[in-house]
Amino acid sequence: MARLRSVLRSLRIWSVVVVLLSRLWWDGRRWTYLSAASDEAIERRQRRLARWLLHELLGLGSAFIKLGQLLSARPDLLPAPWVEQLAQLQDRVPSFPFPQAEALLEAELGPRRSEIMRIEPRPLGSASLAQVHRATLHSGRDVVLKLQRPGLEKLFRLDLQVMEQVAAVLQRHPNWGRGRDWVAMARECRRVLLRELDFRLEAEHAARFRQQFLDDPDVRIPAVIWELTTRRVLCLDYVPGTKITDREALLQRGIDPVAVAEKGAASYLQQLVLYGFFHADPHPGNLAVADDGALIYYDFGMMGQIPPRLRSRFGSMVTAAAARDAGGLVEELQAAGVISTTIDAGPVRRLVRVMLDDALTPPFPSNVLDRLSGDLYALVYGQPFQLPVDLIFVMRALSTFEGVGRALDPGFSLVAIAKPKLLPLMTASGNGPNELINELGRQVGALGTRAVTLPRRLDSSLERLEQGDLQLQIRLGESDRQFRRMATAQHAIGQSVLLGCLALAAALLGASSRPVWAVAPLVAGVPVGLSWLKLQLRLQRDQRLEQLPGQQR
Cα Rg for the chain, rounded, in angstroms? Predict the structure, then answer.
């Protein structure tokens, strides 16, 4: 019976894979679009497919929900609509029976089970990996017990084995496997997901995170009860609070939602700048507010860590960003290993310049981080960028928290709050005024170096110009549109002439002694007619775009 269940499970997974690959193939054929295969039409199909994939991953269960969350941190592999959808994965599944929870506690804790005086049978929450029960110890201490679902590790290993088989198939594909090591990514996913089944690792995350805010009265993190924590059981202090997005309940308790939003923003800046260890999943279910207004964090399964190499250059990056020096910021990102030094930095500098203008120009838009994330995903998809996964988690965590902040305060802007707080935080982290002075000295030195090398660079450019090796790039967006429209119109005229000839041939054959032959030119005219119709729709669309105010000269 177990063998049969494994086979059926494998068939279920492979059926989703086959449908996904079939839809990808279909969406990649331009002739499958009724009208022109415009960027808008392609993006609509991608969003539709991403929503379908999100639903299927939820149906496949724990391992694939976690896989989707990991893939949402790879915008270099997946298109932006997929990343946005997968980032929304929040698993909510029915709880397992309380007798199974009791049996798990007996098996995991052994004699220490007697320290628990009472457990509430109804769980506080339930997800694909575990469910949480409130309990009371004989010492009178109120705790919560996070209990892993029975049989989960066996199911995980089966699903991960099938994932590796799928990765091997993708790797052999001539298009999907080019430039990507799917097998290595599947192995890395296996390592990460199996580690997440060990709740002792989450306990270490919780203890480290709590240590960071131990002296901060505005932030509260539950303490770990280590003697009641095992591989499949996590025991934490019970820290009750009001859901952070319940604005009315906060106001009834005399808590200012605007102040809560500012406390959350300050705590996140501390996590990123001071400690480099941050909560990577700050959705409303993992945040609450205590009766005294302190911010409470829950669930430490998804934590992020900023690479030391990136943290060491954070002061220089802030300085370059504050000065709106797009070129300097790109150089710092390359030095930190965020962006490859082998790529053309021109497009990156242009995008960074636009991003800096959007982020640093008052009034600060409330959704600036969402827009910046979208620009970043569009930039790295399919390009040889080396964005650390944790940097994507930073962007996603900040975007998620900005949404929470807007629920508390409609005028909330994380960027506006961050600007006056960054300098004190940089001072506390060792990146203060001395670092700024040192950075100024480095910039003066760089300026001197460029001044010294300027004659040589001019001489080299003149020599290339004399030899005919100097390339000049000119962008004529309006002319390009006109040329494309002229080419489309010319193509449509050719199709019209061909349709007229086929119609004339059909008329002549219909009047001949063998009128049945008139069917041949009519059949040949069907694809020509469809192509002519698509060209007409494209011309009408281009004409409408030219009439929009943003397209007028």
Answer: 30
C-alpha–C-alpha distance, residues 235 and 229, integer Å: 5
Give the pLDDT mean for 382-405: 70
Q: What's the rounded Cα separation, in Å, for the pair 287 and 297?
A: 5
Per-residue pLDDT at 112 exceeds 50:
yes
> What CA–CA distances, in Å, run from 262 to 108, 214, 269, 346?
41, 19, 11, 37
pTM: 0.66
pLDDT value for 369: 61
Distance CA 163, CA 348 (A): 34
**The predicted structure's pLDDT at residue 327:** 82
Question: Alpha-carbon distance 76 to 201, whole Å?
Answer: 28
Cα–Cα distance, 232 to 154 (Å, whole number) = 13
Q: Which residues contact 464 (CB under 8 A, 6 or more apart)?
A: 470
C-alpha to C-alpha distance for 446 and 441, rounded to whole angstroms: 9
- Which two tokens mark 365? 């838009």
- What's the Cα-to-Cα distance from 235 to each of 41, 64, 135, 144, 155, rounded to whole Å? 50, 26, 9, 6, 24
Query: CA dihedral in degrees (387, 388, 391, 397; nearest 10)?
Result: 110
CB of 6 closer than 8 Å to CB of 158: yes
Q: Report d(CA 64, CA 56) in Å as an integer.
A: 9
Q: What's the CA gap between 39 and 115, in Å, rounded?
A: 62
Answer yes or no: is pLDDT of 186 > 70.
yes
The torsion angles phi and psi of 305, rounded to 5 degrees, stand at -135, 125
What's the CA gap between 80 and 380, in Å, rounded?
A: 10
Average pLDDT over residues 150-166: 87
Higher pLDDT, 131 or 493: 131
In sequence order, what are the residues at sequence separation of 6 or more whose Cβ sits closer than 8 angstroms to the Cβ of residue 373?
Answer: 395, 396, 399
* Size of the chain, expressed as the number of residues it contains: 553
Has residue 373 got a pLDDT over 50? yes
Distance of CA 185 to the CA centre of its chain: 17
Q: Which of 134-143, 267-276, 511-520 has the highest mean pLDDT?
A: 134-143
498 torsion bin: left (phi>0), alpha (psi -120 to 50), beta (else): alpha
Query: What φ, ψ does residue 510 adopt, rounded to 5°?
Result: -65, -25
Give the pLDDT confidence score for residue 104 in this predicted structure. Answer: 94
Positive or negative: CA dihedral 149, 155, 160, 162: negative
Which tokens go with 33? 């679009």
- Of 2-6, 359-363, 546-550, the least confident: 546-550
3-state SS assignment for residue 466: helix
Give the list of residues 6+ apart from residue 14 with CB closer than 8 angstroms, or none.
162, 166
Question: Mean pLDDT in the chain?
Answer: 77
Is residue 281 annotated as part of the catalytic site, yes or no? yes
> Which one of 76, 159, 281, 299 is the catalytic residue?
281
pLDDT at 449 over 50: no
